[in-house]
Structures are given as structure tokens and as C-alpha cells.
Design a protein that fits this description.
Helices cover 51% and strands 8% of the residues. The protein is of the alpha+beta class and 597 residues long. Helix 2 crosses helix 4, helix 18 packs across helix 21 and helix 19 packs across helix 21.
């Protein structure tokens, strides 16, 4: 365990915690529960004890698991604490002492405090005064010039003088989510020096201090983002260390501002495009190659100038082959365009020759596989449905394959239907906004309603009306009157809530497509099991690239977060009945009635 100023391990001192209960021999169930606690306690290993209890709390919380279904036989944090309270041994006294500091629920902390007040087991120094644990370092951020992610590092000191250092890695290729986090029993200087002196791996690294409150807000936000990713990020220590990390984060100052994940607007992208095409790297691109550049830019709208081997892999093997509708011979131009743009961005950003070369080597390495991908027929709707079903099966820990799969003969159809009826009901409740809304839901159609510009800033009224006209034309051509009304309502709300969204120089078509995309996703009219493929929808506007980033900006303006969060049905669950068509309402009513019998 890390010691402050590198002093040697001192002999452990035991102190008495008050208790009135005599020691007894543990029963077999108690002995099983005590086993993982006894070793760290006897070995004077605070970190092992903290990690063991963090893992227990995390396993009992089931946070971020959309497929979790409560079971009377499964432990919760409350039942875990109660079991420790009933088994009155030194090991459970130690565990309760840690949990009192680790959990954030005041009611549960009070229950633990009342129990500890009656115990008298001797405890080691490092378990005394956990409420007095303090941060003893500044927060350092270790980042790389290619920008894939950052390590946040800070150190705390126990009352006994022992030091523990938190390391949290935020992956910007994963939506700026915490991909891994852990605690080491080393001091702050030693930990940071390991990054600085990492030899070849240290090339391109920067180590700098950051405001502690902002660091806390950024890491907590990144933890939340990770809980909305399916499947969630996992490592040997994450998310087992999540409760421990969250406890130590609470020791940092509150009130900070999380790092903003800003999307580039259309005017910024246009300036970048013009500059790239006029540069030595891009001026010789032919018209087809230049046409490939637009969807490439929008796929990287969070930071189109940040390129690394990881970003290149995502673009070449996953996004471009699946998201861009074009002839294979045109798609084959992407590697050339990428090479030119990577060189341009590297020069403008001041990336080292080594960093640029790493990314160019990745393009060379991935090009054969990319060409195979664009030559391969795209999956059918049935293929996609089966893949989604297999993903659901794996996340539900169902050993047998799903019905309709060639391997599905042994699956219990009744069990499958019950599980999915409950999932469908919960999705319907989220789409309705509340259980009360779902119970009172009706099938009344949305009326033919005019665009309401009341409260819309005068300087954006005209652009809002232009966008509305394109939405109207889209609804009339592809959907119906109800979709048209929902588009008008959403557009009006966004314009009223955040006029700046429409002061940016985005094209009318892209803005209208974003509004329509959001409404169609809310009503499941496109995407997974909708009647219309997204590429056909975008093609109506003459677009080849996704409008999701633009739609995300609009939806966040009215308070909708986590726009790309997967749901049971594939629909966006925004909790607003005014945007739901009668067909969506019928589907939700069916889910309600089927589940409730």
C-alpha cells in the first residue's frame, strides 16, 4: 500500500469499536460471506478490502443494466447491509465501516451507523476515521496528442497515512465514457512518473493539472455516459470499482463544470471543407473524392480534425460501409481521401510526424478489409432483427437461442414471451413519460395543426418557417398528417427553447431532416423495425450522411439526453405524448394491456 513520503510500513495498531455482542462461531452461510473479508483484514490490505466491498455493492445495484429483472432471491444493497448487521463478527464490522463511507444513501448510512455504535471489535488504523479521508494531490490529466482519451489521476490519504491513487480513463471514441477506472496503492508522484517515463509509450503524452471540481464533474458525467452504452465497457476492475471510485470522487470539490462534448456546426464544417480543398493535401481531389468528404465530415462532427488509428478503424470498418449509400466504386475512394485529410489535420493541429504516421499506417492496414466490407451485400431487415435478438439474448444471460433462430428448438416460448412483454411494458412507460400517462393513454390521432411561432425569436422566425415547409413536404411524401403535426410541434419547441440552434448556418434541408428523423425515431417509423430504411429517408432530402448529430443538438435543447441510447423497440423514449402518433399510442396500449392481462 502506498505510504506518504515513502515511509516504511508501520506495525498495525488495533483500536476498539464499541460492541455489546459476544463473539460466536460463524454458521456455514456466515463463513462463506466472511471469507472474502477475512483475508484483507488479516493482511492489513485496505485496497483489497475496499475493492471486495465495491464489487459487492456494484453487483447488488444492477445499475445501467436495461435487461435486469428484480428477483426475490437476488441481493440488494439493503439486504447486503442487513446480512452484515445480523452477522456480528470483526469481518462484518470492518465491512460496515467501509460501506458507511462508500455508500451515498443517507438512510442506509444511518442504519449502518446505528449498528456500529453497538460493536466493540478491534479494528486496524486504516479503518478508523474513514470520514476523514482527504485528497492530498492536485488532479492531473494524462492525454495523448491523437486525442483518443485521457487518464484522470488524483490521490487520497487515509487517516493512518496510507495513500491510494485513483486512475480513471475516459475514452473519447466511446462517447467520452469511462472505459476503465481503478485504484492503486501508490503515491501520486510515483503514479504520474510512470506515465512520464514510459519510454516509447510516453511519446506524444502530455501531463497537466486540471481544476478539481471540473475533474469531478467530468468523470461523474463520463461514468453516467458509460451506463447508457450497450454492451457497457468492462475490464478486470471496471465496473467493479465504480462504487469505490464514486466515493473517492465525492472527496473532490463539488460545483464544477463537466467538459463539454461540442458538435461542430455546419458553418464550421463548411470553412474546414473549403480550407482542406484549397490546401496542398486536398486540392487535387477529383469531384467523386470530394463528394465522399461530406459524409466523412459529418460522421466526425464532434471533432472532425481528430484522427487516430482507432478513429480510422471505426470509420472504415463500421460507419462508412453501413451508413453511406453509394456505389462501391465511389466508396472505394475513401482511403485516398482519408490519407489526404489525416495529413492536412495533422499539419494544422501540429501533430508529430510519428503521430501522423501511426494513423496513415492504420489506413494502409485496414484498406483491404474495408474493400471487402463495401463489396459485401448489406444485411437485410431480417438479418438485423436476428442480430438484435441475439444481442438481447446474450444480455439477458439466456443460455438458449431465441425463437425463429435455427438453434431455437429448446427455448421456453412462455419464458421468452413473459420477459419481452415486461420489457415492452417498461419501454411503453418511458415513452409515455410516466406510469399514470400510460394508464390513461388513448388512441386519439394528432390533429392537423399549424406551426406555432409564439415565443420564437424574431430573427429566426423566417428560417424556422423554411424548415417547417420542408418538414411538411417530407411528411406529405413519406408519412402522414400526424407526423407533420409532430414535426411542427418539435420544431416550435426547439426554436423557443434555444434560438441559437437556428442561428448557426446549417442548411434548411439538413435541419428539416433532423427534425423529421427525431419525430420518426420517436414513433419508430424508421430504423430498426420501422417501415422505412434510414438511407431511403435521407435520400428524399438528397443527403447521404447521418443527421443524428444535428438532431442530438435539437433534442438536447428541449432536455432530451442520451439520444442514441438503445431501447427495446428502437424508438427514442422522450416521454412526450404530444409527439406520439396514434399508431405509436396503439402499440403502447397493446404493450400495456398484454402485460397487465
Amino acid at each position: 500500500m502506498g505510504k506518504r513520503n515513502g515511509r516504511k510500513t508501520q506495525k498495525r495498531h488495533l483500536r476498539v469499536v464499541p460492541s455489546s455482542q459476544p463473539r460466536t462461531t460463524p454458521s456455514a452461510p456466515d463463513a462463506e460471506m466472511l471469507a472474502p473479508l477475512r483475508g484483507p483484514l488479516r493482511a492489513d490490505d485496505a485496497l483489497a478490502m475496499f475493492m471486495n466491498l465495491s464489487g459487492l455493492v456494484e453487483a447488488a445495484s444492477h445499475r445501467g443494466d436495461p435487461f435486469y429483472r428484480p428477483s426475490p432471491d437476488e441481493p440488494t444493497i439493503e439486504t447486503l447491509v442487513e446480512a452484515f448487521c445480523q452477522a456480528k463478527f470483526a469481518e462484518t464490522t470492518a465491512a460496515l465501516t467501509v460501506l458507511r463511507a462508500m455508500v451515498s444513501d443517507d438512510v442506509l448510512r444511518g442504519r449502518i451507523a446505528r449498528e456500529l455504535a453497538g460493536r466493540r471489535h478491534p479494528m486496524p488504523d486504516w479503518l478508523i476515521g474513514l470520514d476523514a479521508v482527504r485528497v492530498t494531490s492536485e488532479v492531473m490529466v494524462v492525454s495523448h496528442e491523437l486525442g483518443d482519451g485521457e487518464n484522470y489521476i488524483f490521490t487520497v490519504e487515509l487517516q493512518s497515512g496510507y495513500e491510494l491513487t485513483v486512475i480513471a480513463y475516459i475514452d473519447h471514441n466511446l462517447g467520452s465514457a469511462v472505459k476503465d477506472a481503478f485504484v492503486v496503492d501508490m503515491g501520486h508522484a510515483e503514479t504520474v512518473d510512470r506515465y512520464r517515463n514510459g519510454g516509447a509509450e510516453a511519446a506524444g503524452l502530455t501531463v497537466a493539472g486540471v481544476d478539481a471540481a471540473d475533474a469531478r464533474a467530468t468523470i461523474e458525467d463520463a461514468i453516467d455516459v458509460g451506463m447508457h452504452i450497450l454492451p457497457p465497457p468492462e475490464s478486470d476492475t471496471w465496473p467493479l470499482a465504480r462504487p469505490l471510485i464514486e466515493w473517492l470522487l465525492r472527496l473532490l470539490p463539488a460545483g464544477g463544470v463537466a467538459r463539454e462534448r461540442r458538435l461542430w456546426d455546419e458553418s464550421e464544417c463548411r470553412v474546414l471543407t473549403d480550407d482542406f480543398f484549397a490546401s496542398p493535401e486536398g486540392r487535387d481531389l477529383d469531384p467523386v473524392e470530394r463528394s465522399i468528404f461530406e459524409p466523412l465530415l459529418w460522421m466526425c462532427s464532434n471533432d472532425p480534425m481528430r484522427w487516430s488509428p482507432a478513429v480510422v478503424e471505426t470509420i472504415m470498418l463500421y460507419l462508412f460501409p453501413r451508413k453511406v449509400a453509394d456505389k462501391p466504386e465511389n466508396l472505394a475512394k475513401l482511403p485516398k481521401v482519408l490519407r489526404a485529410f489525416v495529413k492536412y489535420c495533422g499539419r494544422v493541429r501540429g501533430i508529430s510526424a510519428r503521430g501522423i504516421a501511426e494513423t496513415l499506417v492504420a489506413i494502409d492496414h485496414l484498406e483491404p478489409e474495408y474493400r471487402d466490407e463495401i463489396a459485401r451485400p448489406q444485411p437485410s431487415a431480417e438479418d438485423n432483427a436476428l442480430m438484435l435478438a441475439e444481442l438481447v439474448r446474450s444480455q439477458m444471460n439466456v443460455a438458449e437461442p431465441l425463437p425463429e433462430s435455427p438453434l431455437a428448438d429448446d427455448l421456453s416460448i412462455a419464458r421468452y414471451r413473459a420477459d419481452f412483454a415486461e420489457m415492452r411494458l417498461e419501454s411503453a412507460e418511458r415513452r409515455a413519460g410516466s406510469w399514470e400517462n400510460l394508464l390513461s393513454l388513448n388512441e386519439i390521432e394528432l390533429p392537423d395543426e399549424e406551426l406555432d411561432v409564439t415565443g420564437v425569436a424574431d430573427d429566426i422566425v423566417e428560417i424556422v418557417r423554411q424548415i417547417s415547409r420542408r418538414c411538411d413536404e417530407c411528411a406529405d411524401a413519406l408519412f402522414d398528417v400526424e407526423h407533420r403535426t409532430a414535426m411542427r410541434r418539435l420544431l416550435s419547441r426547439v426554436a423557443t427553447a434555444d434560438p441559437a440552434v437556428f442561428r448557426r448556418k446549417a442548411s434548411v434541408d439538413r435541419s428539416a431532416a433532423a427534425i423529421g428523423w427525431a419525430v420518426a425515431r420517436i414513433n419508430n417509423s424508421i430504423m430498426y423495425n420501422g417501415a422505412m430504411p434510414v438511407k431511403d429517408y435521407l435520400a428524399w432530402f438528397g443527403l447521404k450522411s447521418t443527421v443524428t448529430p444535428r438532431a442530438e443538438v435539437m433534442l438536447r435543447a428541449i432536455g432530451v439526453a442520451h439520444v442514441t441510447t438503445p431501447t427495446y423497440s428502437g424508438a427514442l423514449e422522450v416521454g412526450d405524448l404530444d409527439l406520439l402518433t396514434s399508431a405509436s399510442r396503439r402499440d403502447m396500449i397493446d404493450a400495456r394491456d398484454a402485460a397487465l392481462g
